[in-house]
From TrEMBL:
Belongs to the OST5 family. The chain crosses the membrane at residues 44-65, 85-104. It comes from Gossypium australe. It is a multi-pass membrane protein. Keywords: Membrane, Transmembrane, Transmembrane helix. This is Dolichyl-diphosphooligosaccharide-protein glycosyltransferase subunit OST5. The keyword Transmembrane helix applies. Subunit of the oligosaccharyl transferase (OST) complex that catalyzes the initial transfer of a defined glycan (Glc(3)Man(9)GlcNAc(2) in eukaryotes) from the lipid carrier dolichol-pyrophosphate to an asparagine residue within an Asn-X-Ser/Thr consensus motif in nascent polypeptide chains, the first step in protein N-glycosylation. N-glycosylation occurs cotranslationally and the complex associates with the Sec61 complex at the channel-forming translocon complex that mediates protein translocation across the endoplasmic reticulum (ER). All subunits are required for a maximal enzyme activity. The gene is tmem258. One of its GO terms (biological process) is protein N-linked glycosylation. It is found in: Membrane. Component of the oligosaccharyltransferase (OST) complex. GO terms for cellular component: oligosaccharyltransferase complex.
Amino acid sequence: MRRDVGNSKFQYKRRLAGFMFDLCSFSQAPPAKAITSPVPDAWYPTLAVFMLAIGLVLTASFFIYEATSSKRNRSLAKELTTGGVASVFLGFGSLFLLLSAGVYV
């Protein structure tokens, strides 16, 4: 019985070594392409300024709408649409601002 236990350990090590050999054979794969941005790096500051400006204008219009309309005349769809679009522009504007500053997130 002891002989079987020792034999199974030896086979396990051999299988493990064979697996490691198979992993080493992947080093012959062709080199991978570099990951590049779909937007040129020179556009980051411009995109940041425009997107943040649009987002701030939409946020201001949202606050003006909330302050000037009465509770009976408000539209939930308009509030959600304005808030959502402003959020998307402010989010992407912040992303491009960080990218233009060299903080790659």
